Amino acid sequence: MDITILIYQAILVVFIFSVSLFVAMYSTYAERKVAAFMQDRIGPDRAGPFGILQPLADGVKMFMKEEFIPNPSDKFLFVVGPCVAMFTACISSAVIPWGDSLSINGHILSLQVADINIGILYVFGVVSMGVYGIMIGGWASNNKYSMIGAIRASSQLISYEISMGLALIPIVMMSGSISLKTIVEQQQGIHWNVFVQPLSFLIFLICAFAETNRTPFDLPECETELIGGFHTEYSSMKLGFYLFAEYINMFVSSAVMAALYFGGYNFPFIHSLGLSHNAVTLLGVGFFFAKIFAFIFFFMWVRWTIPRFRYDQLMKLGWKILIPLAILNILITGALMMIKAS
Amino acid sequence: MATANPIDYLPIIIQFIVAIGFVIFGMIGSHLLGPKKHSKVKDDSFECGIEAQGNARLPFNVKYFLTAILFVLFDVEVIFMYPWAVNFRDNLGNGTWFWEMILFVVFLMLGFLYIIKKGALDWD
Amino acid sequence: MAPYFFYFLAFLAIFSALMVVFSKNPVYSVLFLVMTFFAIAGQYILLNAQFLAVVHIIVYAGAIMVLFLFVVMLLNLNKELEPHKSSLLKLAGVIASGILMLTLIGTFRGATEQVVGAGLSDGLTYNNQVGLVKNLGKVLFSDFLLPFELSSILFLSAMVGAVMLGKRDKEPIEL
User: Is B74 at the interface with chain A, CB within 8 A?
Assistant: First the structure.
C-alpha cells in the first residue's frame, strides 16, 4: 500500500467521521421538529431561520457548561465512561460501504473505509463494547439511580445482542459472506434482502431499537422513574457525549439496516440509465443516504407513537419471543434453500 | 475468494486514532472552558434533594447475574453458527451439513426449554 | 511495519495484564483485562486470524468480561470490605502461578517443535488465508465435528448448572 492510498484513506475517514457527526447533530434538531410536528407545536425556531442553528447553539452550550464530578464517585472512571460510549459510537461506521467506487485519473477509490472480511462481526463486536460505556458510567457515579439504570441498561443490551446475532445468520447463509460490501453487491437493483428475509429484518429492527436505547426500549434512562438513569450525575460535555453517542448509534444502525436489508447503495434500474460509472456511484450514495434518513425518521416516529415497555415485558420479548423466532427463521431459511437446490 | 490480509485493518486504526482524538479534544476542551465552583453540598451525589444515604454500590437481584451467564452461553453458540452459515451456500448438496447444525440447535433448544421451564427468565 | 505493531501490542498486553494483578479495585482489574484482550485480538489480526480476533473481542471482551463486571458489582467488593490477605497466602499464590508459568512455557516449546517436526508448517508453504472464517468453518464442520457437537452438550450442562445455582426454588436469597 503506497502513501497516496494511505492519505486518501485518512481523508475518507475524517470526511465520513465529520458527516456522521453532522448527521447526528441535525438528528437532534430533526427529532425536536418531528416531535413538534406530531404534537402540533412549532418546535425550535429562534436560532437562525426555522431554528436551523439550534444544534450549534446546543453544542456550544454543552461545551461551556460547568463540568461536575460528584465527590463520592470514582473520578477516573467517571470520565472514562462517556469517553468509551463516544469512542464505540465513532468507530462503528468503519465497515459500512457508503457507495461503490469512484475512478479519478485512473485511480479506483473505494467509498468504504475498510472492506474487511468480517464486516458484520466487526459491527457486532463494537456493539458488544457499547455496554462498557454505560456500565462504567453508572457504577462510577456512585448514585442509586445511576446504578439501577446501568444494570438495567446492560441487561437489556446483552439480551438483545443474542437475537441480533441470530437474526443476521440467514443473511449470511444466503450471501455466503460476512463482508458488508459483498452483501450489498449481491442486492443488485431491487433484489433487496428485505423481500426474502422479512422476519430477519423485523427482528433486527427491534434489536436496533433496543441497542440504541430508543423508545420503546428507553428504560435505562426513563425520566419518570430513574431521573436520568445511568447519566443522572453527568453534566457538560460528558452528558453531551452520552446523548450524542445515542444519535450516532442511531445513524450507524440505520446505515447497517439500509445496507443489509435495503440494498445499500443499490437502486432500481441502476444500469439501464446509461450513466457513467462515477455518476451511478454518486447517485447510489444519494440513495443510500435517503434510505438512512428514512430509517432515522422511522426511529423518531416510533418514539412519539409507542409507550415504553415494562421491564418484564422487555425481557420476555427479548428472550422468549425473539430468540426462538430467530432460530426458527434460520431453520426455515436452511430448509427452503436445500429444497430449492435439490 | 479474494485474499484478506492484516493490512486491510490499517484504515480502522486510522479511524480509532481520529475517534480517540475527538473524544480527548471534547473532554479537555469542555474541562478548560466551563466554570468551576465547588461546595460541599453541590459535590454530593443526587438523591431527591435529601442527603445521600449510604453507598450506592449495593448488591442487586441475582436475576441480572443469571441473565449475564446465559448471555455468555448463547453468545458463544451464536458465534459458532457464523462459520457454518458462511459455508452453507456452498454445501447445499451436502445433506449432513444441515443436520449437523440441527443437532446443535436441538441441544441449544433443550437448554432453552429447561431455562424457560424453570422460570429463570421470569421477571416478576 | 508489522514488527512495530507486534511490539506495541505485546507491550500493551503485558502492561495491562500486570495492571490486572496490581490494581487495588476489582473494577479496574476487569477493565485492564478487557484491554489485554484487545491487545491479544490485535495480535490475532497480525497473524491474519481475523475470525478468531473478532470472536475474541465479542466473546471474551464483550460477554465474559461483562459477566465479570456483573459479578464484581453483585458481590459488592468495596474497598473497605476487602479482607487483608496474609503473606502466607501471597507466597502460596506466587508459587502456584510460578509453576503454572513453567508448565505453559514447556507446553508451548513442545508445541512449536511438534508443529515444525510434523511438517505442518515450515514458515514457507504456510497458507495465510487459513484463519479466515470460511476456511475455518470448512475445517470445524468436517474434521472437528465431534468436538463441536460435544461442545453443545457442554453448553447444555452449563445452562442447567447456571439455572440451578441462580434459581433456588421458592427460597429467599439473602445477599
Answer: yes
Mean pLDDT of B81-90: 88
Cell of A145: 439511580
Nearest to A56 by CA among A33, A25, A86, A24: A25
Element housing A110 (H / E): strand A107-110
Query: Where does C1-82 sit in CATH, by number?
Result: 1.20.120.1200
Q: How many CB atoms are closer than 10 A to CB B30?
A: 21
- pLDDT tens figures, B7-36: 788 888 889 999 999 999 988 888 888 787
Q: How many folded domains does chain A comprise?
A: 1
Question: What whole-number distance in Å separates Cα of residue A111 and Cα of residue A99?
Answer: 5
Q: Which residues contact A258 (CB under 8 A, 6 or more apart)?
A: A264, A288, A291, A292, A295
- Please state, in angstroms and rounded to a whole number, the distance separating the CA atoms of residues A137 and B56: 13
Distance CA A207, CA A19 (A): 25
Coil, helix or strand for C28? helix
> What is the CB neighbour count within 10 angstroms for residue A310?
11
Cβ atoms within 10 A of the Cβ of A274, count?
7
* In chain C, where the domains are located: 1-82
Q: Vertex C143, ends C140 and C147: CA angle to 5°?
A: 65
Give residue for cell 508451548.
C108
Q: Does B86 touch chain C (CB under 8 A)?
A: yes
* pLDDT tens-digit readout, C71-116: 887 676 555 555 666 788 888 989 999 999 999 988 888 776 665 5
Residue A206 has pLDDT above 80, yes or no: yes
For residue A102, report the phi and psi dihedrals to the nearest 5 degrees: -105, 145
A108 — phi, psi (to 5°)?
-95, 115
Decide if C27 touches B, using CB distance below 8 A: no
- Please report which confidence band the pLDDT of residue C125 belongs to, taking 50, 70 and 90 as the band edges: low
Contacts of A192 (CB under 8 A, 6+ apart): A261, A262, A263, A266
Scan residues 11-40 of C and list those with Cβ closer than 8 Å to A. Answer: 25, 27-28, 31, 34
Mean pLDDT of all residues in A272-289: 84
Domain boundaries, chain B: 6-35, 60-124
Task: Give the DSSP letter of residue A267.
Answer: -
Stated pTM of the model: 0.89
Q: How far apart are CA B98 and CA B29, in angstroms?
A: 56
Domain boundaries, position A166: 3-341
